[in-house]
Amino acid sequence: MSASVKDFGNDIGFWTVDIKKEFRKQFRPRPRASHKGDYGRIFILAGSRGLSGACYLASMAAFRSGAGLVTVGVPESLVPPLTKRLTEAMMKPLPETRQGTLSRSALQPIRNFLKTQDILAIGPGLSLNRQTQAVVRDTVLGSTKPVVLDADGLNAFKGQADLFRKCKVPVIVTPHAGEFVRLFGTPVPKGEKLRRQRAVDVAKKYRVIVVLKGYHTVVASPQGKVYVNKTGNPGMATGGSGDILTGMIAAMLGQGAAPFQAACFGVLIHGLAGDMAAKQKGEISMVASDILGALPSAFQQMIG
Length: 304
Hints:
The chain is of the alpha/beta class and 304 residues long. The chain has helices spanning 19-26, 53-64, 79-85, 107-114, 130-142, 152-155, 177-184, 192-206, 241-254, 259-281, 288-303, and strands spanning 41-45, 69-75, 90-94, 119-122, 147-149, 171-173, 209-212, 218-220, 226-228. It has one domain (19-303): UDP-N-acetylmuramoyl-L-alanine:D-glutamate ligase (3-Layer(aba) Sandwich). 42% of the residues lie in helices and 12% in strands. A nine-stranded mixed β-sheet has the order 3-2-1-4-5-6-7-8-9, sandwiched between helices.
């Protein structure tokens, strides 16, 4: 598939640059004297009892997308099992509820630690626990660092999308069609043109960057810019795929990409890795870790 953005016209400000060329401008060869702190400190708030896999996938995707440092904030009981599997990431144990989810008392430690970080990714596997959802809202609304919001992070704002207007930093939301309806209270229409327009409308209204996932994922900015991704395949409709995208976008932000750019780069390379995985495993048998495993090759193709 071509890595360029198709020019659909200028009715709603389509991003028509050569995205591969744009990526190479942003991600140049690393200086020999650089260090891990130069490539972004990513704080990922994810996971709950029974949903620790989301932490692993988001964190490893961030690393595979170039992040220098990744810290995972999780309910404290998840630290021992995650440490065995997620050897590259640092762990931030946080207070938890009886159900093994983030509790209200986790909010202040989260805020304190976030001051030392560059990017916040929040949502994968956090659960629908009321305390946890309140922590998500308060963390996002008080964040001084750019935010990537996914999964249960989106659910925390169900019917309360107006709150995004209070955010002081760029917020990237990554809903699939069902999450889009719950979050914004409006359905995703059929037809590519209507779908693009709906993404732009909510991006402008709520002042967020919208990544409307699905066939031909749409990225829309509050300024009306739109990118329609052409990579990816139905095999990517599998649990954990979205967690990987969250980590990828966070890593792009941490390396200096502008929020809209980071979202566009993320969905393109995520889909490209999915296409590579499908060639090896087949669409039926693909799992999220196959996408994760294909990321190095996808990045090489973008750079090479």
